[in-house]
Amino acid sequence: MEHWLSRTEALIGTEQTQRLQQARVAILGLGGVGGAAAEAICRAGVGNILLMDHDIVDITNINRQLFATTKTVGQEKCLAAAQRLQNINPDCKLTVHQTFYQADTRELLFQFQPNFVIDAIDTVTSKLDLAVECQKRNVNLVMSMGTGNRIDPSKFQIGDISDTAGCGCALARVMRRELKKRGILHQAVVYSTEFPQTIVVDSSHGKHSPGSISFCPPVAGYCLASYVVQYLIKI
What 3-state class would DSSP assign to 119? Predict the structure, then answer.
């Protein structure tokens, strides 16, 4: 008898599908990257998911974020995400924290006892704390590097933080340096080999958020989800 995971089961097998249903995956950050990763993890059949984000859906999120629509603008991203994921799989056990990952909130994550953590946050201090804590606690982690100002989704790939040298990603450059200072020489990441596009600054003060488009951040998120699922079904 067919069920909603029949096509997944046909690809990876019954035992692996059941394994995903027992798995515990945390997604930190629910923007363009994290939102796509969270939905892919849910649709893959992972049965226990933690969502963590402190942000609100903004009108400028609609161009690239799966949980952002005209109906969810103004909602907490965690709430918008939880509602959508629950509609996809009502049996999924969701743990939701409307807060930002940092040193004083990290126990909310580790109390969940994740099999894998997906990092889709963009604050260096928090990313470094997460990497250090995951290594200390022997928790699997994959991190997203920069996805803004890119227009070619085919340039995203999965690799080690050391592989990002020369890719033009400012976030990756800082992470390589700071992780090395903390004794972390290897860390799984998703990054782009495309050099960031030069964008026009319209602000009178010359300040701006990174440019982005509908098909780049989500592709990075799907790469993160793929990495996690492939690991979980091979344990």
Answer: strand
- DSSP label of 56: B
pLDDT in tens, 106-121: 999 999 999 999 999 9
Element (H, E) at 141: strand 140-144
With a cut of 50, which residues of the chain have pLDDT below it? none
**Rounded distance between C-alpha atoms, residue 215 and residue 133, angstroms:** 32
Asked whether the beta carbons of 143 and 127 are under 8 A apart, the reply is yes
DSSP 216: S
Whats the size of the chain, residue-wise?
235
Rounded to 10 degrees, what is the CA torsion of 156, 158, 162, 165? -10
Q: Is 79 exposed, middle or buried (0-12, 13-18, 19+ CB in 10 A)?
A: middle
Quick one: 198 exposed, middle or buried, by C-beta within 10 A (0-12, 13-18, 19+)?
A: exposed
Question: Rounded to 5 degrees, what are φ and ψ at 79?
Answer: -65, -45
3-class DSSP state of 167: coil
Best CA proximity match to 20, nearest among 89, 82, 66: 89
* pLDDT tens-place string over residues 137-177: 999 999 999 999 999 999 999 999 999 999 999 999 999 99
Taking alpha carbons only, the member of 43, 108, 11, 81 closest to residue 117 is 108
Query: Using CA atoms in the order 49, 141, 229, 19, what is the torsion angle rounded to 10 degrees?
Result: -60
Amino acid at 162: S
The CA R_g of the chain, rounded to the nearest whole Å, is 17
